[in-house]
Amino acid sequence: MVISKVAVILRIDVDNPYGWQTQKKKVLNYLRLNWWFPAIKKLGYLKFLDELLNDLEARGIPAAFFFTKFTAPKNLESYEKYEVGAHLISARNYKEFLKELNYISKKLHRKIQGFTKHGSGKLKLCRTHTPKYEPDKYIDWAQKANLKYFLGNSENPEEKQFFAGNVLVYPSAFWIHKNYRADKYTINWLAEESKNRDIIVLLHPYNWAMNKQVRKDYEKIMDKIDNFTTLKCVLKE
């Protein structure tokens, strides 16, 4: 397994199916994440994800989408040309990891090649969420499950990718949201650094739609970066 030419890899973690921009949306989101409220498109299920996907389609930008057990899209055919993976909520042990991985794979009707983790160890984000963030454990599980990659949540985009066995690991990401990015990591820094190596750029659909800073920096990235790829292109047998 080798790594292709350097590029920006857009990672989209889909973890809030209804959002929380109004009280009604907060209630729907809470019910979906905690009590299996149904996925109803007319009520706004994955509305912001659909809008983001349309934007990427219009620009011709590839991306990798990571879904939780609560956020599988209904329009699966729209993701046929994209990499899709699991965004884990419960990850207390390997048995639980496999159960969730297989469940998401079944919902997506795709064999999953890799995953990300919901949360970075600070908050319990829903009833079944395991807040601990233990990347060494996840890398070990990825190897056992014969997966191809794990994308970590650390906030130092200068950390380079590496292989653990046959598993490609990106320990950190360039977070578009500035709450998770040091001031020195500017869009100009990203543009220059991505000429030399692959960098994961992390985005959440709700923040893309509702956070002015995130949307502004997203537009800057679209303007300055011309070397996007996705993980199915990065990994070659």
List low-confidence stretches: none
Class based on secondary structure composition and strand pairing:
alpha/beta
Kindly estimate the percentage of residues that lie in beta strands according to DSSP: 15-25%
Distance between the termini: 5 Å
CATH superfamily: Glycoside hydrolase/deacetylase
Return the CATH architecture.
Alpha-Beta Barrel
CATH class: Alpha Beta
**N-to-C order of helices and strands:** EEHHEEHEHEEEEHEHHEHE
- The tally of beta strands, per DSSP, is 12
**Main β-sheet description:** 10 strands, mixed
Outline type: globular
Our Rg estimate from Cα atoms comes to 17 Å
Query: Roughly how much helix do the residues carry, as a percent range?
Result: 25-40%
Number of domains as seen in the coordinates: 1
Assign the CATH topology.
TIM Barrel
Number of helices: 8
